[in-house]
Amino acid sequence: MAESEGKVGSMPSAPLVRAVIVDDEPDIRDRLQLRLERHGQFAVVGVGGDGPEAVALCARHKPDVLVLDATLPSGPGTDVVRDILAAAPSTMVIIFTGDIGTATRDAAERVGAHAVIGKLDPFDRLVGTIFRLLPDKAPIVDKDDFGEQMTSLLEADGEGRGKGPWWRSGARSRVMIAVLVLVVLPLLAAAAWVIATIAGMAL
After folding, report:
1. What whole-number percentage of the chain has pLDDT above 90?
2. Are 142 and 12 in contact (CB under 8 A)?
């Protein structure tokens, strides 16, 4: 798929995020690849299962983002972050971990990783973090048409056909309310005042 074709729903297209996934568990990396590609804004350009492979994939593809498992057969994922950034300085490295404790976050920060995401976190959190790190690749949101929608709503008559503002509508219920408020109630109030006045005079 060409980068200009990437889109989410009806939003205008934005450049695809080129991603590499490295995790030693095939089920996790396959599921993550599937979800990213289904999202529509990602192109997974490389998949691997160990630290040295992560370095090689990033050197070859120069991806926008690397989702890197925190625990790999060759050792902690953080051990290869410096090598990855040396090979692909513009790549955003996200440590993908089952342990999001302070020690993991501190280790990621020390080596220059850009974010830490828990494997049990909602998928939307991973996507949101990627777009926060790569704002130029974030989906382009359509112009907010809230004002236009409200104007249309106010101008619609009781059946929603847009024949004029609701206060100008000829709808029977609104006419009856207006007559009640503007005519009937004042007449009743005046009649009550007259009756009270006559009763007072009779006394």
Report:
1. 58
2. yes
Instruction: Cite the beta strand spans of the chain per DSSP E.
Output: 17-22, 42-48, 65-69, 71-72, 75-76, 92-97, 115-118
- What are the φ/ψ torsions at residue 46 (nearest 5 degrees)? -165, 145
Q: Are 53 and 74 in contact (CB under 8 A)?
A: no
Is the separation of the CB atoms in 100 and 107 below 8 Å? Answer: no
The mean pLDDT of 142-166, rounded to a whole number, is: 51
Residue position matching structure tokens 């989410």:
8
What does the pLDDT read at residue 34? Answer: 96
- How far is it, in rounded angstroms, from Cα 144 to Cα 164? 23
CA angle 131, 31, 28 (to 5 degrees): 100
Q: What is the pTM of this model?
A: 0.64
Residues shown for the chain: 203
